[in-house]
UniProtKB/TrEMBL annotation:
Name of the protein this chain belongs to: purine-nucleoside phosphorylase
CDD domains, sorted: PNP-EcPNPII_like
Top-level EC class: transferase
Species of the source: Hallella bergensis DSM 17361
Gene: deoD
A UniProt-annotated Pfam family: PNP_UDP_1
This enzyme's EC code(s): 2.4.2.1
Family: Belongs to the PNP/MTAP phosphorylase family.
Keyword Transferase: yes
Swiss-Prot/TrEMBL keywords: Glycosyltransferase, Transferase
Pathway this chain belongs to: Purine metabolism; purine nucleoside salvage
Record GO biological process: nucleoside metabolic process
GO molecular function terms attached to this record: purine-nucleoside phosphorylase activity
GO cellular component: cytoplasm
InterPro entries for the chain: Nucleoside_phosphorylase_d, Nucleoside_phosphorylase_sf, Purine_phosphorylase
Length: 196
């Protein structure tokens, strides 16, 4: 099953609506979820167009996707010590090495948006352990893990922030950077599906 786009919290959808596709995936028997996003990088080792394998996340959304009555797909208090599957991360690294593609690794910070981050926000997210920040992914991953679905995530670094010189960001520039890097991400994910 493949989705073209997603529902974003900043568009006014509730968390239940944002994560409804993962509930459908569970009912269809899907066992592994691949998620991708465009993200702003605040790790000084990152460059625009880099691919970042998500190793963990920090949830800054104001509403939790599991808030309310517990769905019987998982426990009331699900464990989140490994939201992104280590074996899938290792497979991505192996394939990237074979294909001579560079992969970064890092922690994704999920925020509600729809504004891009201020320089101070970028610096704060970096200080608390974030490498990239975006407006999606975290709710879907939480619900997928609650359902017992394994997750692999990748961010395309489309802009940089939090450094000495503030950089103005536009949605159009983010889209251009994402479109340029997408073929490399697709190549790795396609190879992962074939190999696993």
């Amino acid at each position: 099953m493949a989705m073209e786009g997603r529902f974003h919290y900043y568009e006014g959808y509730t968390m239940k609506e944002v994560t409804f596709p993962e509930r459908v995936m569970y009912e269809l028997g899907i066992e592994t979820l691949f998620v991708s996003n465009a993200a702003g990088g605040m790790n000084p080792e990152f460059g625009i167009g880099d691919l970042m394998v998500i190793t963990d996340h920090i949830n800054f959304f104001p509403e939790h996707p599991l808030h309310g009555p517990n769905f019987p797909t998982g426990p009331r208090f699900p464990d989140m010590h490994q939201p992104y599957d280590c074996k899938l991360i290792a497979l991505a690294d192996e394939l990237a090495k074979e294909k001579n593609l560079k992969l970064q690794h890092g922690v994704y910070v999920g925020v509600q948006g729809p504004t891009f981050e201020t320089p101070a926000e970028y610096r704060m997210f970096r200080t608390i352990g974030g490498d990239a920040v975006g407006m999606s992914t975290v709710p879907e991953v939480i619900v997928a893990r609650h359902c017992g679905i394994k997750v692999f995530g990748m961010s395309i670094i489309t802009d940089l922030g939090g450094f000495d010189t503030p950089v103005q960001v536009s949605h159009e520039e983010v889209q251009q950077a994402a479109n340029a890097a997408q073929p490399k991400m697709t190549e790795i994910m396609r190879a992962m599906i074939q190999r696993s």
